[in-house]
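Below is how a single chain appears once it has passed through the pipeline. First comes the sequence as given, then the structure the pipeline wrote out for it. We keep one example in the README because the format questions we get most often are answered faster by looking than by reading.
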Amino acid sequence: MKNMTECGQGLVGIHELIDDEKCFETVRKLRWPCGVHCPYCTSNKVIKHGRKNKQPHCRKYRCRNCGHCFDDLAGTVLCGHHQPLRTWILCLYLMGLNLSNLQIAEELDLNKDDCQKMTSTLRTGINLKRPLARLSKEVECDEVYVVAGHKGYPKVVRSLGREGGRNRLKGARGRGTLAKEKPPIFGMIERGGEVVIRMLENVKQKTIEPLIRSAIAPWKPCIY
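Resulting structure:
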């Protein structure tokens, strides 16, 4: 059931009760607690440069060091989307309540496909910011291969230097790689503890060794 609040003769959606200005103020405080700095060169020599036409509460800036112009959301996963910031904030909040995508779409009056894209974008951003877990004690490592293809991902296909094709779900024989549309998912699990999972281009030693060294604490022999 949609979370609606009575207001006079009609009903108001929950997303209408959130103030865009407050959302942008919160983003600025969390992103730049010590003052605005340029996402391109990290300089703090930044001046205000007006506001966005379609989002009047979103401030624009210009870096006096490198000359780049940017706004409050530049360089974040929220940049370049048509949904207002308050909708993204509420979507993130409802995800934290463990609601399904369908429930979130109903609460925020969103198309279910748009909601799916939003939650995927937010999860990607959270994973990028989350520090890599540090595993210790007994750690097991293994890989699994996912036959996925690149249907719907033309940028990935072009980056591999070829045009997209059909019927690629069968995958190539042998040990998989991202280029063969059979990417390896490499996992490390500490018995009774944390789990680290990453999709890699391949599982060659030079690829997995840096990940293992950064995720698993060096073994220290016990001295009695």
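The longest strand covers residues 139-145.

See the next section for the split statistics.
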